[in-house]
Amino acid sequence: MSDCIFCKIANGEIQSDIVFEDDKVIAFRDLNPQAPIHILIITKQHFDNILSMDSSQSALLSHLYFTAANIARQEGIADAGFRLVLNCNALGGQSVAHIHVHLLGGRQMHWPPG
Ligand code: 5GP
Ligand code: ZN
Question: What is the pLDDT of residues 59-79, one digit of tens each?
Answer without folding.
Answer: 999 999 999 999 999 999 999
